[in-house]
TrEMBL record:
Gene: PPOX
Main location: mitochondrion
Cofactor(s) needed: FAD
Keywords attached to this entry: FAD, Flavoprotein, Heme biosynthesis, Oxidoreductase, Porphyrin biosynthesis
Protein known as: Protoporphyrinogen oxidase
Superkingdom per UniProt: Eukaryota
Domain Amine oxidase: 12-471
Organism name: Galeopterus variegatus (Malayan flying lemur)
Family matches, as InterPro entries: Amino_oxidase (IPR002937), FAD/NAD-bd_sf (IPR036188), Protoporphyrinogen_oxidase (IPR004572), Zeta_carotene_desat/Oxidored (IPR050464)
Catalytic activity field: protoporphyrinogen IX + 3 O2 = protoporphyrin IX + 3 H2O2
Family, as annotated: Belongs to the protoporphyrinogen/coproporphyrinogen oxidase family. Protoporphyrinogen oxidase subfamily.
NCBIfam families, alphabetized: proto_IX_ox
Length: 477
């Protein structure tokens, strides 16, 4: 009898794990268990009454590098090429990103000329910070916060304006707590290998073999900065769902896993409330903190480590305006914590993807709220009402973008614990988890945003790697 692999969690990581398992020549029996009625996890696209698309989670996927290319390959294999909406390299959404500082929007400098010129809000041309970086000695610590690393190498302004904002934009997190080694591994590695981050980035990490397809070549030739899908990014999990079903994967929805136990024969019993599943191997693609509550007593040391990988919440407010114009054209802007502790940034969705504006077209922007403001509200037990978030978001759009008229359409969602935080020493947590799994020979593989990257590409790669490691132990593989 073939082996049974149960995958926990139908977000993009669990779906990607099933996708790669389902393509194996000797396919094990694969069962995907999702706790809610919908697949996709944080990837969720909603259509407005005029046909406009509102992304409640991710809104763009980067095509760069081997991971970006692998995702595009999967998109082609799913037959989605004609649905792809690219942001080409010469488009304003690819070229312009802004910082909102001191009540004004400033373009982030790009290219050599941009670095040589004075570029407020930075007091000196960034060229000088770069020159200083080249002369700095290599750090000696095995890990460092993003803030301390950037301050040491590029100076206090780059640390407190640029990297502070970037950490808020990507992780909704605090650069003074997040780990450089885990959040920006390429910067950490560049310093380790070449002593200088700039030198390391210029010389590159060496070309890893990249998958090739017509779509990958097109993305490279047109210098895409990101892409979406015509009907929203949720088309990706929906297509994966259809593909998996056609390949014989059982997809169980509305079945939250409530416990895992090890049986005498070494197999898992996966408890689903009223029923249970037997599994030879489990791939967990649920958040680390969720898995920590499911593990049996024998795996208590692993559960203790996973419990410490926490996540922060983000309120996503999608706004649509009729007859309004943005003061600038670009991907969007980020807001450093010193400027506004609550507003992480605003994405100008209509600039990157005007095809999703609806009929007649309306201007769409998304305000992301979170950070210390939201943490303080949560800690004080304040009522986190839709009205509060809508009011904060409208105020931000009015002050920061001049969108003073009331929006024609508004969606408010508070995503609780949606972005894992790789805080200082995160790599040690991963090491202990790996060591425990290897020493105990537990038939369990970890995937998902909690571990080695939160971007959609990272999550898909974590699912792929989980599938590869399971297939390696298949008797007939
Ligand atoms: C607001 C926001 C904006 C983002 N923007 C971008 C972006 O623009 N670009 C980008 O690349 N990335 C972005 N990201 C990051 C990216 O979307 C996520 O990191 C990624 O989608 C996480 O996927 P996952 O499958 O690992 O986890 P999840 O999406 O959390 O999926 C986990 C799944 O497990 C299920 N589950 C939980 N408990 C159980 C249980 N007990 N039993 C069964 N199932 C269970 C959940 O219901 C869920 O479906 C964004 C994230 C957020 C929140």
């Amino acid at each position: 009898m073939g082996r049974t692999v149960v995958v926990l969690g139908g977000g993009i990581s669990g779906l990607a794990a099933c996708y790669h398992l389902s393509r194996a020549p000797s396919l094990p029996k694969v069962i995907l268990v999702e706790g809610t009625e919908r697949l996709g996890g944080w990837i969720r696209s909603v259509r407005g009454p005029d046909g406009a698309i509102f992304e409640l989670g991710p809104r763009g996927i980067r095509p760069a590098g081997a991971l970006g290319a692998r995702t595009l390959l999967m998109v082609s294999e799913l037959g989605l090429d004609s649905e792809v909406l690219p942001v080409r390299g010469d488009h304003p959404a690819a070229q312009n990103r802004f910082l909102y500082v001191g009540g004004a929007l400033y373009p982030l400098p790009t290219g050599l000329r941009g670095l040589l010129r004075p570029s407020p809000p930075f007091s000196k041309p960034l060229f000088w910070a770069g020159l200083r970086e080249l002369t700095k000695p290599r750090g000696k610590e095995p890990d460092e916060t993003v803030h301390s690393f950037t301050q040491r190498r590029l100076g206090p302004e780059v640390a407190s304006l640029a990297m502070d904002s970037l950490c808020r934009g990507v992780f909704a997190g605090n650069s003074r707590e997040l780990s450089i080694r885990s959040c920006f591994p390429s910067l950490f590695q560049a310093e380790q290998t070449h002593r200088s981050v700039l030198l390391g980035l210029l010389l590159g990490a060496g070309q890893s073999p990249q998958p090739d397809s017509a779509l990958v070549r097109q993305a490279r030739a047109e210098h895409w900065s990101q892409w979406s899908l015509r009907g929203g990014l949720e088309m990706l999990p929906q297509s994966l769902d259809a593909h998996l079903t056609s390949r014989g994967v059982s997809v169980l929805r509305g079945q939250p896993v409530c416990g895992l136990s090890l049986q005498a024969d070494g197999r898992w019993k996966v408890s689903l409330g009223d029923s249970s599943l037997d599994a030879d191997h489990v791939i967990s693609a649920v958040p680390a903190s969720v898995l920590s509550e499911l593990l049996p007593a024998e795996a208590a040391p692993l559960a203790d480590v996973l419990r410490t990988i926490t996540a922060v919440s983000v309120a996503v407010v999608n706004l649509q305006y009729r007859g309004a114009r943005l003061p600038v054209q670009g991907f969007g802007h980020l807001v450093p914590s010193s400027e506004d502790p609550g507003v992480l940034g605003i994405v100008y969705d209509s600039v990157a993807f005007p095809e999703q504006d609806g009929t007649p077209p309306g201007l769409r922007v998304t305000v992301m709220l979170g950070g210390s403001w939201l943490q303080t509200l949560e800690a004080n037990g304040c009522a986190l009402s839709q009205e509060l978030f809508q009011q904060q978001a409208q105020e931000a759009a009015a002050t920061q973008l001049g969108l003073k008229e009331p929006p024609s359409h508004c969606l408010v969602h508070l995503h609780k614990n949606c972005i894992p935080q790789y805080t200082l020493g995160h790599w040690q947590k991963l090491e202990s988890a790996k060591q425990f799994l290897a020493a105990q020979k537990l038939p369990l593989t970890l995937a998902g945003a909690s571990y080695e990257g939160v971007a959609v590409n990272d999550c898909i790669e974590s699912g792929r790697q989980a599938a590869v490691s399971v297939l390696r132990t298949e008797p007939n593989s």
